[in-house]
Amino acid sequence: MTADVDVLIVGAGLSGVGAARHLQDSLPDASFAILEAREAIGGTWDLFRYPGVRSDSDMQTLGYRFRPWTDEKSIADGHKILEYVRDTAAETGIDRHIRFGHRVVRAEWSSAESRWTVTAEHGTQSVTLTSRFLYTCTGYYRYDEGYTPDFAGTERFRGQIVHPQHWPADLDYSGKKVVVIGSGATAVTLVPSMADDAAHVTMLQRSPTYIASLPAKDPIANTLRRALGNRIAYPISRWKNIAVSVGVYQASQRLPRLVKAILRRSQQRRLPTGYDIDTHLTPRYNPWDQRLCLVPNGDLFRAIRHGKASIATDRIATFTEAGLALESGAELEADIVVTATGLNLLVCGGIELSVDGAPVSFPNTLAYKGMMLSDVPNFVFTIGYTNASWTLKADLVAEYFCRLYARMAERGQSVFVAVNDDPALETRPLLDFEAGYVQRGVAQFPRAGSRAPWQLGMSYFHDLVSLRHGRLDDAAMRFSA
Ligand SMILES: Cc1cc2nc3c(=O)[nH]c(=O)nc-3n(C[C@H](O)[C@H](O)[C@H](O)COP(=O)(O)OP(=O)(O)OC[C@H]3O[C@@H](n4cnc5c(N)ncnc54)[C@H](O)[C@@H]3O)c2cc1C
After folding, report:
1. 194, 270, 375, 447: which could form a disulfide with 301 (CB 3.0–4.6 Å)?
2. Stated pTM of the model
3. 85-89 long-range contacts, Cβ below 8 Å, gap at least 24?
4. Which of 327, 442, 435 is nearest to 383 (CA)?
5. Which top-level group of life is the source organism from (predicted)?
6. For ligand 1, mutation pick of 44, 57, 127 (most atoms within 8 Å of CB)
7. What's the CA-to-centroid distance between 274 and ligand 1, angstroms?
């Protein structure tokens, strides 16, 4: 089977569905198709099925700019987010453009034809499509395998070891002793969610994370929605939350001691008197040097207060028959151990790119405005923020691409490519973030430059100016007919 479209989107998660909707709205004459490796819409929000799976940022900013989030809960349950993405796809018939079960493995650009030839595996078949533009919305991690460090003694352990990315639908943990290894967003979600039914849940962490409590329901957003209706209230609440998240991030960078003190006071109010906050909840780094974890309505702290959950800050020496032996000499008994130890990063969904027969090595490319690759024509990728909701950036990338497409059509141009002419440009990792999973995998990603337009901004306001309103034809961007 072959087909030719103007824009080929890869991935039908939050970003791919959003990109398609922007195309439909801004470029109704552009033809597009979406290739999706899995059999379902939703990406992350369909894949992760562990108890309590939820957003760890507010849905006014994780939701699309063009489609109000109408649920009462702003820190939302995973299935509600999945429903939102699915509904968005169904509403305007985007779902009819998706070819499920198509894993893109190769994309070859031909300058002679000004086209991408994209090869996807579909069962045992190989399917080829061609397109003028290739727009990847493949997320940032491997779907087939979560990250698990090599722990000693796992073969001795008589209980069950589970990774949150591969949650067994029939796992019964009621009345069981559970240890959750990890201290990131997944661990802090799992611990209170399992605590009600389990005998006890211990969160075992090597080092602590900053954890802030936030109301699951945003009273201002809900009041505005009831008073003004979705259409008017949503952009106001969205801007409020953008301002709050940017404010918290900036305050963390500039006044880390103040932010630390506020977090600590809020934790003290929710935890038992005398709780060892220094050991279990005070990282060595400053707030937002790594992602700050949110817990809705302080649920994790409540579980600790009620004795249903606890935090152990220690290192694993080895698994034993009955649980875990720790380096301090302590032992943790467990029937179930959950390895909330993270993701394996994957650049561009594992697609091999080539330009006129020459393979593209991602680490040798530079990211232009955090959304295109140097010397790779008519190619766009989507990577969201690490310090704010992903969709804020994904929406801007889509808007920028639509503006670029329309302008090129107006001027009879068919090819764009970003080129760096400055051999002295300093480069740095694309994701400048200390989190373990980023450090493990960032070397396979494109590089960022030390100045615009090669810098990857983590500032929404900067990107808003640059991507929504900024020039499309700076010195680095070349167009041809
Ligand atoms: C558990 C969890 C919770 C999160 N919570 C938040 C949060 O609260 N706020 C936030 O901002 N971010 C959060 N994130 C980050 C999150 O991944 C993004 O917010 C968002 O869901 C990314 O959407 P996406 O469509 O870009 O990528 P994904 O959701 O990863 O979807 C990518 C899609 O592309 C498909 N695909 C990949 N490679 C190929 C290929 N080669 N061929 C065909 N199809 C392919 C995949 O099958 C998938 O459907 C969370 C991540 C995880 C893992």
Report:
1. 270
2. 0.95
3. 85/13, 85/14, 85/17, 85/41, 85/42, 85/43, 85/45, 86/41, 86/42, 88/17, 88/18, 88/21, 88/64, 89/12, 89/17, 89/20, 89/41
4. 442
5. Bacteria
6. 44
7. 40
Domains located in the chain, CATH noted: 5-143+344-480 (3.50.50.60), 149-219+258-341 (3.50.50.60)
Per residue in 50-103, pLDDT (tens digit) is: 999 999 999 999 999 999 999 999 999 999 999 999 999 999 999 999 999 999
Taking the C-alpha atoms of residue 407 and residue 29, their distance in angstroms, rounded to an integer, is 14
Ligand 1 pocket check for 37: Cβ under 6 Å: yes
Quick one: residue 215, left, alpha or beta (phi over 0 = left, psi -120 to 50 = alpha)? beta
What are the structure tokens assigned to 118, written together?
A: 């994209």
* Token representation of residue 325: 């032996």
Counting from 1 in the atom list of ligand 1, the atom nearest the Cα of 394 is 26
DSSP H or E run through 257: helix 256-270
158 CB neighbour count, 10 Å cutoff: 11
